[in-house]
Design goal:
By secondary structure, the protein is mainly β. It is 6% helix and 42% strand. The chain has one helix spanning 15-21; strands spanning 2-3, 6-12, 28-32, 35-42, 45-50, 64-66, 70-72, 79-81, 97-98, 100-103, 106-112.
Amino acid sequence: MELEGHKWVRVFRDLEEAREKLGDLKPRALRYRDQRVCLVRNGDKLRAFFDECPHSRVPLSRGYCTNKGEIVCYLHSYIYDLGTGSELENRTGELVFFPIKESEEGIFIGFPNPPDQST
């Protein structure tokens, strides 16, 4: 599915499947082409972001989530808000989110279309 400059890739049939396959507040790594994604479910809300700590460049999917809706990097314990992407002490950059869309066809993550290479 392609919309608004994104390639939309289905990751779950529906929210029920997301609940079954993705533990609450359990980061999970996935890859689409050259994009590494960390996917987190917080209740019925899904967040997808580039699977790299803005501070140390290690995979955030190897960290853990708090019950406050934060993800903690395993290497230096930098904490990022899953709602805003901000690091709690503003010592580094923010998480880079991928859009998520829910429809009758499923739950999709939007990946940026590559630049047009035709000249």
